[in-house]
Amino acid sequence: xxxxxxxxxxxxxxxxxxxxxxxxxxxxxxxxxxxxxxxxxxxxxxxxxxxxxxxxxxxxxxxxxxxxxxxxxxxxxxxxxxxxxxxxxxxxxxxxxxxxxxxxxxxxxxxxxxxxxxxxxxxxxxxxxxxxxxxxxxxxxxxxxxxxxxxxxxxxxxxxxxxxxxxxxxxxxxxxxxxxxxxxxxxxxxxxxxxxxxxxxxxxxxxxxxxxxxxxxxxxxxxxxxxxxxxxxxxxxxxxxxxxxxxxxxxxxxxxxxxxxx
Amino acid sequence: xxxxxxxxxxxxxxxxxxxxxxxxxxxxxxxxxxxxxxxxxxxxxxxxxxxxxxxxxxxxxxxxxxxxxxxxxxxxxxxxxxxxxxxxxxxxxxxxxxxxxxxxxxxxxxxxxxxxxxxxxxxxxxxxxxxxxxxxxxxxxxxxxxxxxxxxxxxxxxxxxxxxxxxxxxxxxxxxxxxxxxxxxxxxxxxxxxxxxxxxxxxxxxxxxxxxxxxxxxxxxxxxxxxxxxxxxxxxxxxxxxxxxxxxxxxxxxxxxxxxxx
Amino acid sequence: xxxxxxxxxxxxxxxxxxxxxxxxxxxxxxxxxxxxxxxxxxxxxxxxxxxxxxxxxxxxxxxxxxxxxxxxxxxxxxxxxxxxxxxxxxxxxxxxxxxxxxxxxxxxxxxxxxxxxxxxxxxxxxxxxxxxxxxxxxxxxxxxxxxxxxxxxxxxxxxxxxxxxxxxxxxxxxxxxxxxxxxxxxxxxxxxxxxxxxxxxxxxxxxxxxxxxxxxxxxxxxxxxxxxxxxxxxxxxxxxxxxxxxxxxxxxxxxxxxxxxx
Lengths: 262, 262, 262
Fold this sequence. Notes:
Chain A has helices at about 225, 230-260, and strands at about 10, 15-20, 25, 30, 35, 40-45, 55, 60-65, 70, 75, 80, 85, 90-95, 100, 105, 110, 115, 120-125, 130, 135, 140, 155, 160-165, 170, 175, 180, 190, 195-200, 205. By secondary structure, chain A is α/β, with parallel strands linked by helices. In chain A, the strands form 3 sheets. The first copy, chain A, has an 11-stranded mixed beta sheet with strand order 2-5-8-11-14-17-20-23-26-28-29. In chain A, strands 1-4-7-10-13-16-19-22-25-27 form a 10-stranded parallel beta sheet, with no helix packed on it. The first copy, chain A, has an 8-stranded parallel beta sheet with strand order 3-6-9-12-15-18-21-24, with no helix packed on it.
């Protein structure tokens, strides 16, 4: 109850709007034109190696009410965070990261550019998440291969991959570029680029070419029909990624057809 | 930090108790005899079509601490909301809605009377939820048929249907009146009235007549043994619904028996 | 808005640090050297039988920001609670309980010593949780055998058992000592001590002897390699439990082998 609510040591950019009842700790840097909602804690003290390390939030961030962000992380410009999320120490995130409400980022994670987490996403420590990845509600990226063990085998999500609602990604799983994990699937091991993963066994059910919407004709790779939601600077990356995923799918179809012939 | 915490433009009824550190925005109307817990944000600004639209909360509401309700929604009398829930813009809800803690209503949803959500329910945009529906923890009503696509195919839950823990209702699913979705089921398509849905494939495993409790003899439809938890004005509706669901079950049993004969 | 934030009737120990914007109600007792984060509500009024009953939190507790603890519960020393958790009335917990963030303890639950809940654990009413149990994210301990029914068949978790991510434990289930519930499993009935449970059907897939990590050789029972994370006073209990679980596994292997021969 003693310290001032907004630390004098925090570096707050120009035109930053801060709500009521917001605690901003030391070691915090917030870029210009950012918005912090009511009841947030920014720069919460971390333990271990991250104690006293800076929290650097790029310009144009919007962080909604009741969210807690620990010290010891870096976020590129245009960060968006929903309500009541928790982001712990040791996150290195690129540009335009969007995090929904009720997310739980346990820290020690690398995140590329233009990544989107819907509500209630749980990111275990040690995860590496590529550019343009999408994660949907109640997905868990785990990391302990024999819980409780103290071992940490983080999950890797390739560029442009999609993990759907309530999927549990088992420890040490690598999801290839542009792959699609269906709702309630439980992937493990190495999931090839362009693959479709389904069910409790995390079975490879084919390629993402199977994902076609009857009424509209929209299909995967999603970059073929969804790029308009991204900022202009993402467009070239999206076009390039689209081509690569199409090649991945081609290759995987050939491989799977070969397996079926044998 | 400039604006008053409780807007002068908000219309607060008689005998309303408001906790400490509560933000009430403009455009908010709260009915008589309501209770708002500490650290709530009521009437949070919405974007898009709902910006500046009123939030109308009926009389006798109880909203627990740390909850955020956006502008642009309407709730009938006797609303109950737990702690740390998020309710976004565009909700049209009837009487006696009960929402637990950690719920995430994404907005743009129609909800009937005497509906109950347990903790941690996620309601995607576009859902239509009938009277007397029950939803249990970690259920997700999805809406994107080919994520990420920007398409929105909301879920419809018929009157008196029940969706159990950790079920994921796939986009565009219609759950018939009085149907029962088992824990961890993943329903899709058109689920007939009175059906029992189970498993990752969302299989129709028969009718709700299978749901009988050995020790007590209690069985489905649940309206046969649970109406005492509802207010008197719901009783007639419950009796009527009970009869309709019994007919639904009768019809579905005949249909399923026919399929089995073929 | 009238009452003082920290009740004069609360009994606060020596060297207790209380954050800003913290509400502490009457009937609360907090042990020495505890820490309460910003925006917490401690001793929230309960309804029914627990109204006005004391909340007793042992010494050296740490409760993180935005957490709500109801009156009518008892916690032993060294309690740890993460951010934005909800703990309702009627919890009786032993020493060194660790509760992560976004947990939802619905109340009316008994918890042993050295128990650990990760983030987003949901504990339904009526649960009984033994010493040294581990529960991982998005696990639900349910209690209603025919929802909605008003019946309450709580779950029992034996000493040293482990329930992994997104498992749903069905009402009235008893998990034996040292058993292991895999991610996304749905156990029911009586799970024998030392058993491994998998899948949507909650199948007994053998004993925990199957759980061996190839690279490191670490294996179950976990007490064989994980005791260093516990305080010294837990060591003797852990050693004793380890021996008992090894005997359980021996017995179960014999039983399962006999079933396979028949």
